[in-house]
Amino acid sequence: MNAGSNAPERYYNYAYLDEQTKRMIRRAILKALAIPGYQVPFGSREMPVPYGWGTGGIQLTAALIGPDDVYKCIDQGADDTTNAVSIRRFFAQVADVAVTEDTGEATIIQTRHRIPEKPLKAGQVLVFQVPQPEPLRGLEPRETETRAMHAYEEYGLQYVSLYESVATYGRIASTVGYPTMIDERYLMNPSPIPKFDNPKLDDNDAILLFGAGREKRIYAVPPNTRVRSLDFEDHPFETQTWDDACALCGAGDSYLDEVVLDDAGQRMFVCSDSHYCAERRAAGHAGPMAGHQLATPETEPAQ
Amino acid sequence: MNAMPQAIQAAPLLRVSGLTKWYGQIIGCRDVAFELRPGEVLGIVGESGSGKTTLLNCISGRLPPSSGSVEFDTARFGLADIYSLNEPDRRRMQREEWGFVHQNPRDGLRMRASGGANVAEPLMNLGGRHYGKMRQATIDWLERVELDTRRIDHKPRQFSGGMQQRIQVARNLIHGPRLVFMDEPTGGLDVSVQARLLDLLRELVRDLDLAVIIVTHDMAVARLMADRLMVMKGGLVVETGLTDQVLDDPQHPYSQLLVSSVLQI
Amino acid sequence: MSHQPLIVVEDLAKTFVLHNADRAAIPVFHKLRLEVGAGECVVLAGESGVGKSTLMRAIYGNYLPTSGAVRVLHDGAYVDITQALPHQVIDVRRRTLGYVSQFLRVIPRVSTLQLVMEPLLENGVEPEAARERAETLLDALRLPRAHWELPPATFSGGEQQRVNIARSFIRNYPVMLLDEPTASLDADNRAIVVDLIRQALGQGAAMIGIFHDHDVRDAVATRLFPVAQFKAAA
Q1: Alpha carbons A267 and A265: distance in angstroms, whole number
Q2: What is the pTM assigned to this prediction?
Q3: Given B87, B113, B130, which is nearest A160 (Cβ)?
């Protein structure tokens, strides 16, 4: 569909949600930005995808997006996975926006479980899809109790999970959804991003919004907010590191996915951020397996 | 004859006055008043439904009473009515200065966390952020409650009932509370395990100079643990006094019945 | 040293009321008066059932008198045991008023030596000093050293009783209540206990005792106190 905003034959409300719902979500977003890290309850709507496919992120995007926005959607860092492609098409259709894979030119980036490698800038909004917003839920099943814990800053329990991790593995082994303290006040689950991305949350120039559709919570980190990853004095926070560089683009500073190549145990490590990797390759960087077929994925079929 | 030094020499640790709890038209406990001094062990005895658990819950800040007050000598505010403190202050005081040992370890332990983490949690709640130090403190406490320290990372479910109760005891003492509530702490255990746990509790209470309020229906537990007793019936305290006096020369008809009902071996 | 009595019993009355037996009242004694001074050992006399043990227990605070007062000199002032708050009675019992019965309350798993030391540890005595005193007493009572590290649960009656006596005499109470402390001891051990009692009296303790053994009674009593003279009418 290629209808302009003035097209008379539009059968849906702009950006899918009705205006009252978008207004309700915007209010929740404003409150979330005003209280960084605080989980704002909102009236999550039924979306045309199942829970777990990003209904929270989609609602946030729908409430924010306008015809002048440029929209990017990634799933585990990649622009070309089924979920990312579907959501991107959805908004191209219902919001008449330009879409892109270029992190730099996007105004709204919806993401499932990664933060792009390229630093974000002021004016950009990063929308996270969140399965479980409550960082304390694993050890405290009662919502009344976790709410009180947030209200009174009783965060000892979060350290219990870190303690368990050190006791079991000799280090803080949790690698995704690593708990963070926002502006030294609210404990926040950063969604299941790898802890590699945690440092990018801190003092970010962009607006970071988190939406949990099934759990009906919205929370936010405003630009340039202090985000601290929890740790122990004798077990400080550390990010993952790799011995390898990206096999395709040679990047040594990006989050790498392991790709199994055949049944004989051949494997390679490649950037999880597909656009970052492509941009580097276009700029002439090359890794040891540059030119491998994975570097030239099938292009998206023409619509 | 000289004047008797009967006045209270030191400020009480806990002062309960006019404590009453209604459940609608039904009385939970009525007009209970007493003082507890540092290091004193008070036993609350009575049969099921006598109101002793209601009373314990009211005193321990878990159930707001219908009327009356519970004053505690808090570290930060001095003697203060715990229900007049705002909720975060009350919760903090409970975390820092109290312990609560439940009859059922499942109510007092985080079953999803390991035994060691359960014991260390109060330290983390009080701001402990050094893993190594907390780990060592946990090991010390597991030894103190006579648990195999090699099992520190086992989940509570992997321990027997008596061992779970020891974990709960360590968890409630590690942060150095001044007052510990115990609700039938040996209730669910078989007799030999119960005797060993009681012995341990008695020793810890003496060594740490703890004030304890212990609810039990078992007169043998009361005799072994408590300095003094309150006998409850129908929500009322019908008799109070020195433990051995109440048990050996009970005055109230109900106390006499209760004591004479104990099976002799 | 003043001539104040260490223990003053004033108009003491005790009547048991058994509520679950038609409120049956069992009067034991009334208007009972007794003073005991330093170095005195008053032996309660009378037939079995006359109320000797009841009086001892009332003085100790174990039984609640119907009326009257029991004043014990504690820290230079009299404390009325019948009116004192529980923590005060506990304090008096810990530092002033000892009760020696013929029964040892065995605590599982606690060694004999530890058991005997415990009262001193409770009073804040250093463990080394407490151990020394406990060893002296156990030696004096001729309890074999091989037994010291064992819990007394499996000891014979006489051995248990000697442990109990060691535990009771270790504190040097100014006031002692002796409820048949020699009941199951042989002649040699009875003589040792008599020595301990005399030593304590020599140090100024005041004692009230019940002794069925006439030899022991004659050896320690400074006077007899017939409880029957205060018998209350039924």
Answers
A1: 6
A2: 0.88
A3: B113
Whether B21 is covered by a domain: the verdict is: yes
Distance of CA C110 to the CA centre of its chain: 23
Number of domains in chain C: 1
Backbone angles phi, psi at B126, to 5 degrees: -95, 15
Q: Residue B53 sits in which domain range? A: 4-106+178-263
Q: How many CB atoms lie within 10 A of CB C101?
A: 20
Catalytic (active site) residue A271: yes
Distance in angstroms (rounded) separating the CA atoms of residues B14 and A151: 28
Distance CA C205, CA B230 (A): 34
Query: Does the distance separating the beta carbons of A160 and B131 come in below 8 Å?
Result: no
Residues in chain C whose Cβ is within 8 Å of chain B: 8, 16-20, 57, 61-64, 71, 75, 77-80, 83-90, 107-110, 122
Query: Residue A242: which of A233, A255, A232 has the closest Cα?
Result: A255
- Going A85 to A89 to A92 to A98, the CA torsion angle's sign is positive
Q: Does residue C28 fall inside a structural domain?
A: no
Q: Which domain holds residue C220?
A: 39-63+86-226
Contacting partners of chain C (3+ CB pairs under 8 A): B
CATH code, domain with B62 = 3.40.50.300
The reply to whether C196 falls in a domain is yes
To test the contact with chain A by mutation, choose from B87, B91, B110, B124 the residue with the greatest count of A C-beta atoms within 10 A, namely B124
pLDDT in tens, chain B (265 residues): 343 444 445 679 999 999 999 999 999 999 999 999 999 999 999 988 899 999 999 999 999 999 999 999 999 999 999 999 999 999 999 999 999 999 999 999 999 999 999 999 999 999 999 999 999 999 999 999 999 999 999 999 999 999 999 999 999 999 999 999 999 998 888 887 888 888 889 888 888 889 999 999 999 899 989 999 999 999 999 999 999 999 999 999 999 998 888 766 5
In a domain, B140, yes or no: no
Domain assignment present for residue C25? The answer is: no
Q: Which residues of B touch A148 (CB under 8 A)?
A: 87, 91
Q: Is residue C102 part of a domain?
A: yes
